[in-house]
Task: inverse folding
C-alpha cells in the first residue's frame, strides 16, 4: 500500500512575545522593543501514513498536534524538514492539494454564517470544482447520512453546535477528499452527538477509502475512529503504533470484578487492591507488574467457587496520562 | 472557466449577504437626506452671503452626493478579514483551492453590487429633491463609471487594511486614518479647487483625489476626454500598485502565520 503522508524531520517554531516584568517603564519598553522568544511546536517529527489509514494524533495542550496538521495542510510553513501529502508538498502546492483535502478544525468554522447550509455547500462545490450532478448526488448521500435534511435551509448561525459540526464535516466531505484532517471534531458536543459524529466519520472514511488524521483530547474519538495512534509531546513523537499495542505497552493495571460463593473475599497477593467486597461481588485492581491475572484467579478459586469474572482494561485516558507523566519525568 | 465560475460564486454570496444585511443599508439611506440637507443649506447661505465658492451651491450638493456615494457604498470588508484572522477561521479558508484575497474581493464586489445602486439612487433622489436641478447625463455617466472603479479600489484597500490584523488585534485605528485621509485629501465635502495649493500637491501623491474628487469633479467643472484618460490611468496605476502590494503582503503574512490556539 502506498503512503498518503510522508513526513521527515519536520520542525516548526513560533516566536511569542515575552512581557518584561516591572511597571510602566517595562510596558513602554515592551511597546518600543518587544522581547520575543522562539517556542518549538514541532521538533524533527517523522512518520508515514498509508492510504486509507485512520490515525489519531494525540498529545497534551501545546504538544504540536494542531501545528502538525496545519503544516500538512499547507497553512503553516515549516522551519525545516520535508512533508509529502498525496504527492504534494503542502506549503508549496497548497491549492493543488486543496482539491484532495478535507479539513475540520473543531474550533474554527468553514461555513458562511449568514448563508443557509445548502448555499454554503453549493459554494464549496464551486470552489472544489465538483460537477453539479456529482454534487447533487454527494449532497443527497451525506445529507441522509448526517441527518441534515431539515437543517439545509436554515442559516448556519441558527444551528446548534452539534448540528453545525455535522454540517462542518459534511462540508469537508462534499468533494470526496482522499485525505481528511480533523482537529478536535467533537469538541463541545454532547455524548450522543459525539457518538454520532464518530460513527459517521468511521463509516464515511471506510466507504471512500479516505485517509483520516484526527487530533483529539477525547480518547473516545480515538478508540471509536482510529486504528493507529501517534502520541506527540513537547513537539516530539512518543509513540507511533496500533492502539492495541499502545494499551499492551502502557497498561499497568486491570480492574477485575468477581462473583463467587463467598459473601466477602480477601485476596492476599502483592499488587492486588480490593476496592469493594460485598453481596458475593468483589472488585479488585491488579498491578500487572507485581502479579498476574492468573495468580489472582488461582488464589480466589482455592477458597471459593468462581461464578463469574469480568476484566476491564485501564481507561485509555489513564494510559495516556501515564505516558505524558513518564515523558515529563524523563 | 471553472476559475471564473468559482469567483463568480463569491460575488453571488456577496449579493445575498448584502440583501441579508439590508438593515445597515436602510440606516445609511436615512443618513443621506440629513447630510445633503445640511450642506444644501450651508452652500446656499455661503452663496447668499456673497462668499466665494468653487461652483454654484446646487453643483456642490451634487458633488457631495457623488463623493458620499463613493464613501458609503463599499462594504467594510476589512472587518471580515480581521475576524477570520482573530478567530483563526483563516485556517479553514487557506487550504481551499481558491485565492483567499480573490474570494474576499469578489464577495466585497457582490455586496457593492447591491449597495452602490441603492445608495446611488437614494443620493440621486435626495440631491434632486434639494437642488431641483438635474446634472448632465454625460456627467452622471462619468461619476457612475469612475465612482464604481473607485469603489472597487476602496474594497481592495479594505482587504489590505484587514491583513493588518496579522499584526494588530484591531485594525479600526488604521481604518480611521484611512478614512480621515480620504475625506481630507480626496475632497469629500468640497472640491479640491477650494483647497490651498500645497494641500492639493500633497494629495496628488496619494490615490485619494482620484477616488473622490476625480469622479465627482464632473458635477462642478467641465471634464474633458484627456481628463478622463488621466483619471483612468491614475486609477489603473493605483489598482496595479494595490494588487501587487496585496499579493506581497499576503504572501508575507501567510509565510509567517501563527494561528492562535495551535
Result:
Amino acid at each position: 500500500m502506498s503512503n498518503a503522508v510522508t513526513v521527515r524531520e519536520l520542525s516548526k517554531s513560533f516566536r511569542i512575545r515575552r512581557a518584561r516584568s516591572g511597571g510602566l517603564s517595562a510596558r513602554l519598553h515592551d511597546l518600543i522593543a518587544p522581547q520575543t522568544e522562539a517556542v518549538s511546536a514541532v521538533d524533527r517529527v517523522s512518520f508515514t501514513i498509508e492510504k486509507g489509514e485512520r490515525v489519531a494524533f494525540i498529545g497534551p495542550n501545546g504538544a504540536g498536534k494542531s501545528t502538525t496538521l496545519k503544516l500538512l495542510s499547507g497553512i503553516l510553513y515549516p522551519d525545516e524538514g520535508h512533508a509529502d501529502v498525496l504527492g504534494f508538498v503542502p506549503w508549496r502546492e497548497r491549492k493543488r492539494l486543496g482539491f484532495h483535502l478535507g479539513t475540520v478544525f473543531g474550533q474554527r468554522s468553514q461555513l458562511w454564517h449568514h448563508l443557509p447550509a445548502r448555499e454554503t455547500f453549493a459554494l464549496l462545490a464551486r470552489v472544489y470544482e465538483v460537477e453539479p450532478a456529482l454534487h447533487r448526488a454527494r449532497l443527497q448521500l451525506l445529507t441522509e447520512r448526517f441527518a441534515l435534511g431539515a437543517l439545509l435551509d436554515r442559516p448556519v448561525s441558527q444551528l446548534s453546535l452539534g448540528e453545525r459540526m455535522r454540517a462542518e464535516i459534511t462540508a469537508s466531505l462534499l468533494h470526496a477528499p482522499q485525505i481528511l484532517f480533523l482537529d478536535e471534531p467533537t469538541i463541545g458536543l454532547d455524548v450522543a452527538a459525539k457518538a454520532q459524529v464518530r460513527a459517521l466519520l468511521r463509516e464515511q472514511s471506510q466507504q471512500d477509502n479516505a485517509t483520516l488524521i484526527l487530533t483529539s483530547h477525547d480518547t473516545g474519538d480515538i478508540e471509536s475512529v482510529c486504528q493507529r495512534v501517534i502520541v506527540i509531546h513537547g513537539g516530539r513523537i512518543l509513540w507511533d503504533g496500533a492502539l492495541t499495542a499502545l494499551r499492551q505497552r502502557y497498561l499497568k493495571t486491570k480492574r477485575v470484578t468477581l462473583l463467587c460463593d463467598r459473601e466477602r473475599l480477601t485476596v492476599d497477593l502483592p499488587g492486588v487492591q480490593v476496592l469493594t467486597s460485598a453481596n458475593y461481588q468483589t472488585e479488585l485492581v491488579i498491578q500487572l507488574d507485581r502479579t498476574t491475572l492468573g495468580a489472582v484467579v488461582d488464589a480466589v478459586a482455592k477458597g471459593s467457587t468462581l461464578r463469574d469474572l469480568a476484566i476491564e482494561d485501564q481507561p485509555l485516558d489513564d494510559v495516556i496520562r501515564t505516558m505524558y507523566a513518564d515523558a515529563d519525568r524523563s | 472557466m471553472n476559475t471564473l465560475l468559482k469567483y463568480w460564486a463569491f460575488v453571488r454570496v456577496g449579493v445575498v449577504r448584502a440583501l441579508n444585511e439590508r438593515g445597515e443599508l436602510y440606516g445609511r439611506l436615512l443618513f443621506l437626506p440629513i447630510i445633503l440637507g445640511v450642506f444644501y443649506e450651508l452652500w446656499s447661505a455661503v452663496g447668499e452671503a456673497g462668499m466665494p465658492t468653487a461652483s454654484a451651491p446646487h453643483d456642490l450638493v451634487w458633488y457631495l452626493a457623488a463623493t458620499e456615494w463613493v464613501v458609503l457604498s463599499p462594504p467594510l470588508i476589512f472587518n471580515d478579514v480581521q475576524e477570520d484572522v482573530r478567530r483563526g477561521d483563516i485556517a479553514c479558508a487557506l487550504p481551499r483551492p481558491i485565492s483567499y484575497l480573490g474570494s474576499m474581493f469578489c464577495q466585497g464586489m457582490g455586496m457593492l453590487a447591491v449597495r452602490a445602486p441603492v445608495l446611488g439612487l437614494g443620493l440621486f433622489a435626495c440631491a434632486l429633491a434639494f437642488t431641483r436641478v438635474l446634472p448632465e447625463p454625460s456627467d452622471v455617466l462619468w461619476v457612475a463609471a469612475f465612482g464604481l472603479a473607485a469603489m472597487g479600489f476602496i474594497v481592495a484597500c479594505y482587504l489590505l487594511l484587514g491583513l493588518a490584523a496579522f499584526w494588530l488585534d484591531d485594525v479600526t485605528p488604521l481604518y480611521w486614518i484611512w478614512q480621515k485621509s480620504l475625506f481630507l485629501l480626496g475632497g469629500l465635502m468640497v472640491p479640491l479647487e477650494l483647497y490651498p495649493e500645497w494641500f492639493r500637491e500633497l494629495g496628488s501623491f496619494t490615490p485619494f483625489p482620484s477616488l473622490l474628487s476625480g469622479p465627482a469633479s464632473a458635477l462642478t467643472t467641465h471634464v474633458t476626454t484627456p481628463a478622463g484618460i488621466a483619471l483612468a490611468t491614475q486609477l489603473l496605476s493605483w489598482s496595479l500598485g494595490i494588487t501587487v502590494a496585496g499579493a506581497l503582503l499576503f504572501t508575507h503574512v501567510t509565510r509567517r502565520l501563527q494561528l492562535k490556539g495551535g
Notes: The longest helix of chain B spans residues 100-131. Chain B is about 75% helix and 0% strand. Chain B has a mean pLDDT of 90. Chain B touches chain A at residues 2, 5-6, 9-10, 13, 16-17, 20-21, 87-89, 91-98, 103, 254-255, 257-259, 261-262 (CB under 8 Å).
